[in-house]
Structure formats: C-alpha cells, structure tokens
Amino acid sequence: MSFIKKYYNIAKYILYPLCRSITGKGTLKSLNIIKKEFPKLKIKKIPSKTKVFDWTIPKEWNVKDAYVKDKFGKKIIDFKKNNLHLMGYSTPVNKTLNKRDLLNKIYYLKYQPNAIPYTTSYYKDRWGFNISYNQKKNIEKKYKKNDTFKVAVKSKFNLNGKLNYGELVIKGQSKKEILISTYICHPSMANDQLSGPIVSMCLIRYFQKRKKLERTLRFIFIPETIGSIAYLSKNLKHLKKNLIGGYALSCLGDEKNHSFVFSKSGNSPSDEALIEAYKKLKIKNYKSFSFLHRGSDERQFNSPGIDLSIPLLCRSKPNLFNEYHTSLDNFKLVTTKGIRGGFEVAKLAINILLKKIVPENLVLCEPQMSKRGLYNTLSIKRNFDISRKYMDFLQYADGKNSLEEISKKIETNFNLTKKIYYKLKKFRLVR
Ligand code: ZN
C-alpha cells in the first residue's frame, strides 16, 4: 500500500469521526494518532488564559453528549451520530423547550437541503444545534405547536485547560528553514480539515527519507487562527531569523482545479517556487488569488511585523466549494487521487524552495567596497559601472528576495546577477 493510501485511510477511518475543536480531547487525540506514525512529532501545550498578542487562549471545551429528544423519548438530533449537529463551543444545557423555542436554536441551510452546516461560537457564550433543512422541515411537519422537547448539551469548560499543537522538525544542512503549517481544529469534515494533515503526513514521510536536505523543514499542526497566533507569539524571533518561506496547507484533497493565495508581497520565494512547480507539473488551469482573498492562517503569517511571506496552498479554495463547512465535505469529495495531486504540488514546490538562492546581506548599511577592491576609488560621473550593480544587489539582498526576483529588481539579466551573487559571497558580503 502506498503511503498516500495509508494516511488517507487513517484520516478517513480514525481521524474523521473525532470531535476536534480549537482546544479539547478530540484535537489532542488526533495529534496523538499522527504521532503514532511520526514519533518525532512533539505535542506542545499552551494553558488557557495565556495572553498571545491581542488574544487569550480560551477555556478548554469538551463534550460528552448532546441531543434533542421528543416527547416520546426518541432522539431526533444526536451528536453521537454526527458531531456537526452541535455548535462548536456550545455551553451546557439541560432543559425542556417548546417547538418554537427549539427551532430558534437550530441552524440549517435552505439552499443546501441535505447538508448539516458547521457552526462555532468560540468567543461568545452560546449553544445551538445544526441540522439539514430537510430534517428541519420534518420536525416542523411532524410535531405540534405545543409539543415539548428535552434538550441536553453535556459540555464542559475547563479554565485550567490547554490548547495543543504538534510540531516536527526535519533537520537539513542549513539552519535556514521552511515552514509547513496545517490546521487541526475542525470536527468531521474531510477537505476543510483532514486533507491538510494528510498531505502534511505524506510530506513528512517523503522528506524524512530524502537524503541531504538543503534546508530544515518545520511542520506544524495547529488550531486555525488562535493556534497560529499562539505559535507566532512563542516562536516569532526564531522564525524571523531563520525562515525563508513556507506554505499554509488547506483543502488539498478534492479533484477540482489547483489554487493558491499569494503571500502579501506577491513575489516571495515561496510564491515563485509554487508557480514553478505548477509549470513543471504542466498544471495550466490553476487559479491564483491575491492576498485580499486570504482565508486561513496565511492571514497571521503575513501580517505586519510578522511578514513571513507564506502563501496558502489548496485545490478548491476554502469557501469557494459548495460542500465547504457542511457535512457534505466528506470522503466522497476527498479522494486519494485528489490528495496525490495536492501532495505532488506541495512536494515539488518545497523541493524547489529548498534549493532556491535567497541572498542575505551580511553587513548593515552599505559596506565599504573600496577597501575590498570592489569600488572605483576615483569618484567621477560615469555610465555603466559594475560597482553600481553590486550596490543595487546588496540593497535587495534582504533574505526575502530570490536571485530571480533580485535580477528583475536591479534590471540585470539572471546570469550576471548570479555572477554578482557569487562574487559578493566570496567577499563575505552576502550569504
Ligand atoms: Zn474551515
């Protein structure tokens, strides 16, 4: 069995049923299942109430059971049948409601009558149930105005809880790093949840066996938004010093077109490597979106002061496919063929990024070029002068531009730019 099929099956049969959230046992259990495959995965914890930039880690949320019973004692909505039936972070409830009050607590999608929607309320106390529109119509038809329903949400909040995330590092020959981030916080959905972790597992498996990695690879499995904010607040200094790029992975398992959201700069080494990968794989019909269409953790990775220049890599872009955030996002939508396609793009883009030259200036301000014999010591008006090109190169060698990008910026052909790079490297002015 190929490793793609293996991780696909683990996701489909073991991870899929678990009730994950931004905190809680379902997410921890999911991380432990991934750790079984990759013992080097470190599971890290951040306590509830910890301040992370402008946010606070919320209380840990766990659910034992949740249901609605009719007057005959029949469960008409059952969390145990599908965890999407319960709104994420629902507060505990134990009461009897009439039909109208019950329907007020129910969410459904009229235009997708068979789909159970996914809802959450992480930062405001609330509870609710999600059902398909057809199921809601049934309840309306079957029960009378005065019928009563027993509603139970057996959830618990722990003020001394934890937010868990997973991290795995594959050391390369250089300390310079590439970050691969995927989120783990959604309950039973396949594309917008498990496809990212499946592709990450495939990548870990592939790169652990690849010899002589040029750079270090860092994989993280984090709860979306609060997890990336928490991770960045703990690791920003290290990332800013060592990261040359990376990718946020989401919705990579369907068989539709490939797509991606550019990093905020739009021309980072990671953006370039991705476009090169599509080209090499002869994928012509991919869609690209500007950073204005951001949606997942790339929002945090590219924000001012963080500036890690990380694009979002997907097949169908989150919220642009019909099944998104509903029970229809399942393993009929996500196939091994879809995952393979997502994996191939990510693998090649990372392989290109591992080799990409991203020059970094080693001195502050302009170096004194004349003492190195790199500058004409007689200052006089002149036309073309290679020393001017050296200075131009050094201005853009900030560890964020690839050699290709610098060549464009300094309006100099690639071969000469490359020669300039090796010359400056020899003089230890860049690395
Ligand atoms: Zn989502």
Task: Characterise the protein shown here.
It contains 12 helices and 16 strands. The chain is an alpha/beta fold and 431 residues long. The protein has 3 domains: 252 residues, Aminopeptidase (3-Layer(aba) Sandwich); 98 residues, Domain of unknown function DUF2172 (Glucose Oxidase, domain 1), CATH 3.50.30; 57 residues. The protein binds zinc ion (ZN). Zinc ion (ZN) binds next to loops.
For this structure, the CATH topology of the largest domain is Aminopeptidase
Query: Could you report the average pLDDT, rounded to the nearest whole number?
Result: 96
| Rg (C-alpha, Å) | 26 Å
Going by CATH, the architecture of the largest domain would be 3-Layer(aba) Sandwich
Secondary-structure class:
alpha/beta
Helical coverage, percent range: 25-40%
CATH superfamily of the largest domain: Zn peptidases
C-alpha geometry = elongated
Small molecules bound in the structure, each named once: zinc ion
Biggest sheet, strands in spatial order? Answer: 1-10-12-11-13-16-14-15
Q: What's the β-strand tally?
A: 16
